[in-house]
From TrEMBL:
Chain's role: Negatively regulates transcription of bacterial ribonucleotide reductase nrd genes and operons by binding to NrdR-boxes.
Organism of origin: Neoroseomonas oryzicola
Name listed for the protein in its UniProt record: Transcriptional repressor NrdR
GO MF, one example: ATP binding
Keyword annotations from UniProtKB, A to Z: ATP-binding, DNA-binding, Metal-binding, Nucleotide-binding, Repressor, Transcription, Transcription regulation, Zinc, Zinc-finger
Zinc finger regions, unnamed: 3-34
Residue ranges occupied by any ATP-cone domain in the UniProt entry: 49-139
Required cofactor names: Zn(2+)
UniProt-listed GO biological process terms: negative regulation of DNA-templated transcription
InterPro entries the record matches: ATP-cone_dom, NrdR-like_N, RNR_NrdR-like
Superkingdom of source: Bacteria
């Protein structure tokens, strides 16, 4: 593993332990050259997923981009990091087990909205406002009206 600080390829694993309820391995590493310490995670990947963007581009699925979107929606909400990781893992597993190698970005957004709705309704509304491109207060009112009517 290459050191993220100095770029040397010779790093040593100092500690390994299960993480994310056994779904990943957390490795604590040290660089023999600069002495820096850093953490890596190893996860099972069932298949390569390509995301089909709305403009027709195809890009590799980026788990960290999904996690960032979740964290932004949940900023300042009472949800701990473990629940966020489980949510991201759940969405990734659903995508990997569907059998498709190309997944439309819209489907990923819908899965994320569905998961956020169950986890935290404020985060759900935040994500929906960006995802559905709300531009006026009436967009929020219509969305909240739908949300109130479905429960």
């Amino acid at each position: 593993m290459r050191c993220p600080f100095c770029g040397v390829e010779d790093t040593q694993v100092k500690d390994s332990r299960p993480a994310e309820d056994g779904a990943a391995i957390r490795r604590r590493r040290a660089c023999a050259s600069c002495g820096a310490r850093f953490t890596t995670f190893e996860r099972v990947q069932l298949r390569e997923i390509t995301v089909l963007k709305t403009d027709g581009r195809r890009v590799p699925f980026d788990r960290e981009k999904l996690a960032r979107s979740v964290r932004v929606a949940l900023r300042k909400r009472p949800v701990d990091e473990d629940r966020i990781e489980r949510l991201v893992n759940s969405i990734q597993r659903r995508l990997e087990t569907e059998g498709e190698t190309e997944i439309p970005s819209r489907k990923i957004g819908e899965l994320l909205m569905e998961s956020l709705k169950e986890l935290d309704q404020v985060a759900y509304v935040r994500f929906a406002s960006v995802y559905r491109n709300f531009s006026e207060a009436k967009d929020f009112q219509a969305f909240l009206g739908e949300l109130g009517g479905k429960e």
